[in-house]
Amino acid sequence: MAERRQMGYSVHREILDEGVVDEMAEKSDSKTSLSEKAKKSMRCSGPKLKSCLLGSIPVLSWLPRYSIRENALGDLIAGISVGIMQLPQGMAYALLASVPPVFGLYSSFYPVLIYFLFGTSKHISVGTYAVMSVMIGGVTERLAPDSNFMIYDNVTNSSIVDIISRDAERVRVAAAVTFMSGLFQILLGLVQFGFVVTYLSEPLVRGYTTGAAIHVIVSQLKYTFGINPMRYSGSFSLIYTVLEICSLIPQTNIGTLVVSIVAIIALILAKELNAYFSKKLPVPIPVELLGVVIATLISWQVNLEDKYGVDVVGLIPSGLQPPVLPTSSLFGKVIGDAFALAVVGYGIAISLGRIFALKYGYKVDSNQELIALGLSNSIGGIFQCFAISCSMSRTMVQESTGGKTQVAGALSAIIILFITLWIGTLFEDLPKAVLAAIIFVNLHGIMKQFMDIPALWRSNKVDMLIWVVTFILTVLFNPDLGLAAAIGFSMLTVIFRTQLPTYSLLGQVPDTDIYRPLEDYNQVKRMPGILIFRSSATLYFANAEMYQEALGKKSGIDITKILSAKKKLEATRKRHEKKNEKKAAKKNAVDMEGEPEREEKKDIAIIKMDDEPDPSIPRAIVLDLSPVNFLDTVGVKALRSIWRDYGEIGIEVVLAGCQIGVVDNLQTGGFFNDKVTKSCLFATVHDAVLHCQSARTHSQDELMYSEISATHL
Amino acid sequence: MAERRQMGYSVHREILDEGVVDEMAEKSDSKTSLSEKAKKSMRCSGPKLKSCLLGSIPVLSWLPRYSIRENALGDLIAGISVGIMQLPQGMAYALLASVPPVFGLYSSFYPVLIYFLFGTSKHISVGTYAVMSVMIGGVTERLAPDSNFMIYDNVTNSSIVDIISRDAERVRVAAAVTFMSGLFQILLGLVQFGFVVTYLSEPLVRGYTTGAAIHVIVSQLKYTFGINPMRYSGSFSLIYTVLEICSLIPQTNIGTLVVSIVAIIALILAKELNAYFSKKLPVPIPVELLGVVIATLISWQVNLEDKYGVDVVGLIPSGLQPPVLPTSSLFGKVIGDAFALAVVGYGIAISLGRIFALKYGYKVDSNQELIALGLSNSIGGIFQCFAISCSMSRTMVQESTGGKTQVAGALSAIIILFITLWIGTLFEDLPKAVLAAIIFVNLHGIMKQFMDIPALWRSNKVDMLIWVVTFILTVLFNPDLGLAAAIGFSMLTVIFRTQLPTYSLLGQVPDTDIYRPLEDYNQVKRMPGILIFRSSATLYFANAEMYQEALGKKSGIDITKILSAKKKLEATRKRHEKKNEKKAAKKNAVDMEGEPEREEKKDIAIIKMDDEPDPSIPRAIVLDLSPVNFLDTVGVKALRSIWRDYGEIGIEVVLAGCQIGVVDNLQTGGFFNDKVTKSCLFATVHDAVLHCQSARTHSQDELMYSEISATHL
User: Fold this and answer.
1) Which end of chain B is more exposed for a tag (fewer CB within 10 A), N or C?
2) pLDDT attached to residue A590
3) Are A350 and A197 in contact (CB under 8 A)?
């Protein structure tokens, strides 16, 4: 540092305005037109076609180069571990989606295999995901509510729900929305809209997943307590559901509650043990699988269902089901939900994928990811899966157990296939409360995200606001509408941040060419007679007027007052001139002298007195436009009116630090004319200040001269 | 210019980083906290209270100082001229609002008087306005459609509309929505939300009024053709209405059409004459009043209604009606429309008011205007007026006939009162087609706004897009929803403009300290070994990722590739080290020499070869952040990961040109730590470049040294 300080900063050059810089540096005018750009990107060639093909089916490029020696063992262990996790999670998340558990197994099989073929991330574990499942649950319960499937039971003399046809309808709805969301993803991928995910900023995603987790929890409470609350849909449904559950708590099924509590405590303890011994164990204990197996055994032995009325999973058909085209009549009703699912699923998958890509030094292609997820979902939809994304917890396991490529995912899918074909039916006695417990325990990581609030409070309050507002909107308006509202809000914050900028007057850091805000520094020197003004934000329609107001306030120049005073003065002057003319005429006629002359002098004195330069009024204003990103017509008009208004009272206005794009905006916006040329634009504030200092005395002389000649005309 | 060029620009100083600047200029830490600011603004005092009172009832401050000698004559002539215009316009716009014509007269009286008391603009003519009226028409016809008032007519044996009760209901609806919009305006004024109008940028307002004019025209076509089309509401209703009118054209009432054509031609001719003689006439001919009077006389004499079935104005009750509290049960149904009316009415009035305030050098207080319009509307609503704003055409007449203060408006209101009380009934025979013709001819000015499109195409394409999109949205989705959508769109353009910035590498303009994009200038010098990178926009969530990608692309450094290569290299190095350790152990044990030494050298050579500095890879990267307005957490993270990633492959990353607020964002966002201090922030790009040049050789030596010592450990 000391060494650096000894290094000198020394510049000798002319004062440069924009025109001179353009001349010196030979500004080039050639711009590639839009059509040329389009042509360039459309051009086709042999190697390009090949790389395009390999790009769209990545498995063709990486599988032939798969190194069995390096990767096979890790992938095998990871694949088995993840496959074992997929079983209980798939069944549990099927409950969230309000479809029978076996469809969760399907969703853990087909999409995973397809992602293996088309995906570019080597480490994420694609499959069922809690947030997506709860979003699908919202759709299925809205379009196939219990009330649509009431039949009259002759035995009990009451209406009961026809569960079989209801569930069949719900599966149809889930498949339709999944298929559509897949189509949306493919479409977005084909038009290279992978960038939409940039709107899902980190605070937004974290606030959103936390809010969705609240929905997940509330939707599972009924299994935990063994109650049967009414289903609400639409905005504020979460609040109504919570109230309903509270009112139903007296009807809690004690057996179910006991099972829930035992399962939750056991799972938490086992997970803690797992974390504690994680370094000593080569592969983590499959806690959830053990839980499911033990719970099924107990339930089967004790016969929990009949003795204590504990709700169990029920019929699990073995084998796969033939593909069915989705019910197209449902498409119109689920289009909004499908779009939300497409965006959320992609957003979660790509952000996790990027984390691991960065860690292991490879690249995830965002548009290819969209297509891969889209194909997984749309083909999955045909096989009656529900929409998938990737799960944080499984991905962590896949990576930590040594998974190195997409092969691990394919192996996990094979394990699920094996379970579905032969073992699935064994789990028919599993209490649903245990699945709910698995969901609760898995939400542990998401719940930790509440700690973002104090962290963001310290680092960036606007981002904290985005987090909190997203969370509240998601909780209140459900995950689909809430996401849209939250994205809208996060965009609004950009407007707010640029709409209320800091306006400051700059002064010179002594003996340098650096200018800093006067109010932030004590040793910054105000330049005599020159006002340097800067707004911290872009100048555009939302703040153009404030810019003008702030300039007036900071400079202490009440432009309207001065202008109206000037107008009055001019009127007076004109009257005097007329009088003088008359008098001159008279004088010529009568040829008298002395008296009129004196009066004329008095008039000039009056005018002079008002025109005396006020020491508080600067001679020049430098507008530092370096923070301006672009100018719209409103911004250009504001600058022009500043130039004109202050120019009228004799203050020179110059601009400094404009970017090339801003200069272009000024040009096309008609800022320049005969009087205003590029010579009032300066490369730096210091150039502008030097110009004003040199021009000052000169222009004062000129003004004085023009004044004198005007009054003596 | 030549003189200025001779002036030198010459700076000698140390290279300054942010820390040193802070030290030199004594950065002050004291910031006024939010609570202090709040306290300051809440503080109350005697003079403040008085100015507050005078501010809220401006008439108290300006009327006592009213100069009769200077203003009275102008105000009198202007008042009479405007009052004469208010009569036909008020009746015509009442048709737009779908209420009986007399309510247009009320709307030209009460609100105008109230604005006289509370308004701050001296020149605008408050009263009925076409766009507002058509918006109210949308509400009244939606909530009180013809179909709700069908009664069975015994005479003709068919259902006819009970016009009296329908119109009574429509008046109630109009009064309710007007009252509510007034309340909204008062509320917005009290919370000092006058700034919302800044969202209504000029291209948006002009596109919007043009779109609304299309609605006005379509809604009046039925009077021109004398047909009775069905009423459509909601989105796309304009298209349905046009189709309906086309299908009904065969049923045109020939008498009505003739009246329309004659009236339109006569009005246009008269207006042209008026414009032609405008300089010779002291007061413009009241074309519209003459038209109304002549049309009424002809209609009465010929008995157009009975002979040719021409629809006439009908019953005009003389006298005023007692105030009625608005029907509160309607409030819920009109809340959205009321808000739209409040915003539009205010937006139009304030933009016109500002134009004249600027012209005559006085100030319009935006919050007081909101309150004045709000009081006009809410009190007007109680007296069964419909919502008002100010009309361009009347305002022009008021100003050109010499109106100088709000007194002109008050006089026009008195004229309307006089007409309402005694003369109104005379106009009962006036054909509605003539009123429609007046509306058409008055839209002439708005239709000229289509010429904005080519003008904006030349000056700013994004603003042209805002104009066109606003116009289309307004036409398709009706004025209320269209306005909201258009505001949303215009905010989105800000995101778009900053989301797709220009990324460029900068080079030095020879022999200066100025850096410009290499692709824009031919004579700009790339600094050897130093990469200077700039984005034209703020760095935030929507473009943070692209910023990193663009940096990689522009610099030609594939960071992931290099990092993974480096990781492999390190693994190799470690393996070698382990081998060497073993060998060293062996060597110690066996005490042999020669052979191992040689191998070690080879190892180093391997490492060296890969580590050789690539000449295409720079030694330092300077990120010019001067266009950055603010940083959110995503932006800070992007910068931090750039610093870390490039730092890992030995490239120094420094930032230049950060504003104070951006430095604060970096600080709170946790960008700085033990390694990253404010010494990697520089005041200007040139400082950063000089630092990198001076640090370069030094750091290379250091690196070499550390490498050697590492391999020999």
Assistant:
1) C
2) 59
3) yes
Half-sphere exposure of B28 (CA within 13 A, CB side): 12
**Residue positions counted in chain A:** 713
Please give the structure tokens belonging to residue A187. 């479409």
The pLDDT, as a whole number, for residue A381 is: 94
Q: What is the DSSP string of A311-380?
A: -B------S--------GGGHHHHHHHHHHHHHHHHHHHHHHHHHHHHHHT----HHHHHHHHHHHHHHH
CB < 8 Å to A683, chain B = 512, 514
Q: Which helix (H) or strand (E) holds B151?
A: strand B150-153
Where are the domains positioned within chain A?
A: 86-154+166-305+316-448, 503-560+615-712
List residues bridging with A521 in a β-sheet.
B27
CA B117/CA B372 separation, integer angstroms: 8
Side chain identity at B5, as an amino acid letter?
R
Mean pLDDT confidence for B559-567? 73
* Segment among A74-78, A314-318, B332-336 with least mean pLDDT: A314-318
Interchain contact, B660 vs A15, CB within 8 Å: no
One-letter amino acid for residue B346 of the chain: Y
Residue type for position A570: E
Q: How far is B608 from chain A (nearest CA, A)?
A: 22
Query: What average pLDDT does the structure give for chain A?
Result: 82
Cβ atoms within 10 Å of A109's Cβ, excluding its own:
27
Q: Render pLDDT for B612-668 as a digit per residue (tens, 0 to 9).
A: 455 567 889 999 999 999 888 888 988 988 898 888 888 889 999 888 889 888 888
CATH class of A503-560+615-712: alpha beta
Residue A259: name the closest of A217, A218, A291 by CA.
Answer: A291
Per-residue CA distances from B222 to B242, B264, B435 (Å): 10, 15, 12
* pLDDT tops 60 at residue A599: no
pLDDT given for residue A711 in this prediction: 36
Q: Please indicate if any CB of chain B lies within 8 Å of the CB of A208.
A: no
Collapse the DSSP code of A486 into the 3-class scheme (helix H, G, I; strand E, B; otherwise coil) and give the result.
helix
ipTM: 0.76
Specify whether the CB–CB gap between A426 and A83 falls below 8 A: no
Helix A163-190, helix A130-143: angle, nearest 10: 120
Instruction: Please tell me the predicted confidence (pLDDT) of residue A29.
Output: 66
The CB-side HSE value for A136 (13 A sphere, CA atoms) comes to 38
Establish how many alpha carbons lie within 13 A of residue B79's alpha carbon, considering only the half-sphere containing its beta carbon.
Answer: 25
Q: What is the nearest CA distance from A629 to chain B, expressed in angstroms?
A: 5
Which residues have CB under 8 Å from B223's CB, separation 6+? Answer: B95, B256, B260, B311, B432, B433, B435, B436
Q: What is the secondary structure of A133-199 as a DSSP string?
A: HHHHHHHHHHHS-GGGGEEEETTTTEEEE-HHHHHHHHHHHHHHHHHHHHHHHHHHHHTT-GGGGGG
The phi, psi pair for B339, rounded to 5°, reads: -65, -45
At A80, which helix (H) or strand (E)? Answer: helix A68-96
Which amino acid belongs to residue A477?
A: F
| Amino acid at site B122 | K
| pLDDT over 80 at A464, yes or no | yes
Assess B5–A contact: CB distance below 8 Å, yes or no.
yes
- Is-contact B132 B140, C-beta < 8 A? no
- Taken in order B566, B572, B578, B582, the sign of the CA dihedral is negative
Inform me whether the C-beta atom of residue B501 falls under 8 Å from chain A C-beta atoms.
yes
- The answer for residues whose C-beta is within 8 angstroms of residue A180's C-beta and 6 or more apart is A326, A331, A334, A335, A338, A381
Query: Cα(A287)–Cα(A437) distance, rounded to whole angstroms?
Result: 12
pTM above 0.95, yes or no: no
For range A148-157, the mean pLDDT:
79
Instruction: Tally A–B CB contacts below 8 A.
Output: 308
